[in-house]
Specification:
- The chain has 78 residues and is mainly beta.
- 0% of the residues lie in helices and 62% in strands.
- The chain has no helices and six strands.
- It has a three-stranded antiparallel sheet, with no helix packed on it.
- It is elongated, with a radius of gyration of 13 Å.
């Protein structure tokens, strides 16, 4: 499993991704944030070895999470 964390600042939506090593592929993923008013709207594979998560606020108000993290569960390529 790999993860990627950032502090993106004030916004109404956030998109972030985690990437497996080149010899592996992402078979699942998830996201986590410190903000209570952000909700996952998309969570899906991206490219040949990554996982991306998108969050939006519940009322189009801006959020400023101290962190957002995306996790990718990596497996060997077959």
């Amino acid at each position: 499993m790999v993860s990627n964390t950032t502090d993106r600042g004030l916004n109404t939506e956030f998109f972030w991704a985690a990437t497996c090593l080149d010899d592996k592929r992402a078979i699942a993923g998830a996201g986590n944030t410190s903000s209570l008013n952000l909700f996952v709207t998309d969570s899906n594979p991206v490219g040949s070895n990554g996982w991306a998560v998108r969050w939006e606020t519940d009322n189009n108000g801006a959020a400023d999470p101290s962190f957002i993290t995306v996790y990718a569960l990596c497996a060997p390529r077959l």
